[in-house]
Amino acid sequence: MLTECTVVVPTIGRPSLDVLLDALATAPGPRPAELILVDDRPTGAPLTPARPGLPPVRVVRTGGGGPARARNLGWRSARTPWIAFLDDDVVPDADWYERLAADLAGLPADVAGSQGRVHVPLPGDRRPTDWERGTAGLATASWITADLAYRRAALSAVGGFDERFPRAFREDSDLALRILDTGARLVRGQRRITHPVRPTDRWVSVRVQAGNADDVLMRRLHGRDWRRRADAALGRRPQHTAVTAAALAAVGGVAFRRPLAAALAAAGWLAGTAEFAWRRIAPGPRTRAEVTTMVATSAAIPALATWHWLRGVVRHVGVRPWRGLPDLVLFDRDGTLVRDYPYNGDPALVTPVPGAREAVDALRARGVRVGVVSNQSGVARGIITRAQVDACMARLEELLGPFDTVGVCPHGPDDGCECRKPAPGMVEAACAELDVDPARCVVIGDIAADVDAAAAAGATGIMVPTPVTRKDEVAAAAHPAPTLTAAVDDVLGGRW
Description:
By secondary structure, the chain is an alpha/beta fold. It contains 18 helices and 13 strands. Residues 6-129 form the Glycosyltransferase 2-like domain. It is found in: Cytoplasm.
């Protein structure tokens, strides 16, 4: 079963990664098909994960896109039916491989994901701190990707993780709700990981208030009852709003010379802050350092929580459902990727248009597969041979890098074939070859035949006109782009 599973670990190079890799290397049992480490650091020395006992390891890099983008690159780079996500700060149990295989074996087709069980060790010789208690909540959280395996097809169908969630917060709940909305089920398995409490500084509770903006995004995307569906508590945001309002009223009372109103508002702020601080201090160890930290951060958190919530309200106006990236982008060749020399059979004349290599590489870097679909009627007309076409395609790959699929129609306009664009044959064949839903495919070309072939196959077409493209075709194009670079930018921006 694990031969059908890839383990994906996003990482920012923390020391805990070595602990995770050691656990995976020494654990008994079957190995997955591959371990993909997604290096999400903007810069840094290459990771050196190799050690005996690991499955085949591959490292890919995002350049610092955040956890959602890192996980997306990981699953898009994999080719197995199942993707098992692990965080880089967890430690799998010794039998994790065996239990993962058992958890995934025989799952019904309507089950899209299986969540592992999380253990958070807390100190046995004292009460846990506020940060430790917060981390312990992971043990009962729903659908967190610290250990969660998804069917690759389910991830593809919803576009993967929503990269508008910039931090490791709510992006996993959002994905789970979108997958559940397709009618699929998510289940809990029996495998276990340990999630140690990561060391941090005293201001961590202040920084995490940025997640209030993500809560606004969740509400805009999933409606008012998203918390119930995601099993996410409301927390103290209403109280934080009230305490912040009291603080503003106190400042306003002073500014407008209303001493009594200012005093009452200040008393309200002080009472609310003291109550909040005590709720955090009472269950903790009550050391001098912990009490000092709780008092200082409790004074700052209400205003910051409210600020981030308001920032989210403004930022996420009119937000649309996440579509993600396509699984496959197919390019027309002549006039789109390379300059059009009619019936060209000479590899020396294969000349990429400006920005072609960069555009194709940008898609590869995000894990999007790329291909070429090209009408070559010169073969049917006797002007060029199929061997010349293949030589030109080989030269194209030398210049632009390897393509995941290449389709050529050698027929003429009157041959009545199913492959010549605007017929959908080449697009359908490419999707079938790579096991891609045509709805997750984009075709980029320079004439109506390219976008019409896309539409006939159920894919999306983007037209990049050239000076020889007919004006009526340009006017009729549903999605034109001025250049190849602009077309790919639209794809990477989710505008397809």
